[in-house]
Each structure stands twice: as C-alpha cells, then as structure tokens.
Amino acid sequence: MGAGSSTQLSDIINCAAEAARRNNQLIEPSHILHAILQCEQCAAYGLIARNASNIDIIASKSHALVQAEPVQAEIQEGQPQMSLRMKKSLEAIVPLVYGENIRAFHSGDILLGILREGTSPAAALLNDSGVTLAEIEAVIEFEGETVLFDVAVSGV
C-alpha cells in the first residue's frame, strides 16, 4: 500500500471529525461514509461505486444522515469523540488488520467495519443501495488491498 492510501485515510478521518465538530456531534459511521463519498480516489469510494445502484443518491442521503445525527449538549475541546457505534465499527476490523498477516489500515477497512457493525443508519443506507457486507468482503478477500487501490484510482 502506497503513501497515498494512508493520506486518503487520514483525509477521510479528518473530514469526518471536522463535520462532527462543526455540527457538535460525536463521530458516527455516517460521518465516515459521507467523507468517503467526497474522496473519489480512495479505495472505499471505488468499492461503493462498483456495487451501488447510484452513488450520487447515496452521497445525497449520506449528507442527510449526517445532518440527522443528534447534537451533543457539550463536546470537549480537542479531538472529537467517537460514538459507541463508530468504536464498534473499528473494533469489527481489528482482526482483519492485526490478524495473522498484519497490514496497514486503509479506507476499504473502514467501509468493511461499518458494514460488519451493521446497526448504523450508514450501514442500512449502504445495504439498501446494494453495497452489502458479503459483496465487500468477497472483493477484499479476492482482490487484496493492492488491487483495491487500482480499482479505486481507475474510476471503477
């Protein structure tokens, strides 16, 4: 995995954190999904585009999901906090990233975590749009991370 993919992952996380901070919200999977849909060069965007019926509709609906997330009475200064659902989404991919073959974390992993956690509005939106856990796991398992990045960059 090249440096570009880790930069893209960082950009996605920073974009999601900024949206949460701006709206006085905890970071939710919907923030991550919305950020992914703004990063056409990242692997996760390519995975969604490859499997979704209409990525523009998903992008519009993901924006609505972010706006619908509850506002927190008070968020501490500094790093935005993650919701329990977001933490569970990340925990769902720990064995994948830190399992037998330790490897770098990439945007496709975050997408996989959201789908594995499965209870968030972001996961429901992806499933309803044809982006399912089984489809994403099959692509990641079959193609591996190197091909994932080629798919994303080539515009699917």
Query: How does the major sheet shape up?
Result: none
The percent range for strand residues is under 5%
pLDDT average, as an integer? Answer: 74
Overall structural class, as computed from helix and strand content, comes to mainly alpha
Total beta strand runs:
0
- Overall geometry comes to globular
Terminal residue distance: 18 Å
**SSE arrangement, N to C:** HHHHHHHHH
Low-pLDDT stretches:
143-156
Helical stretch tally:
9
Helix % is 55-70%
Radius of gyration: 15 Å
Write structural notes for this entry:
It is a single chain. By secondary structure, the protein is mainly α. 67% of the residues lie in helices and 0% in strands. It has 9 helices and no strands. The chain has helices at 3-22, 29-36, 43-51, 55-68, 84-91, 94-98, 107-117, 121-128, 133-153. Helix 1 crosses helix 2, helix 2 (29-36) runs antiparallel to helix 4 (55-68) and helix 3 packs across helix 7 (107-117).
In short:
This protein has 156 residues and is mainly α.
Summary keywords:
0% strand, mainly alpha, 156 residues, single chain, 67% helix
Draw up the topology in text.
Layout: H1 3-22, H2 29-36, H3 43-51, H4 55-68, H5 84-91, H6 94-98, H7 107-117, H8 121-128, H9 133-153
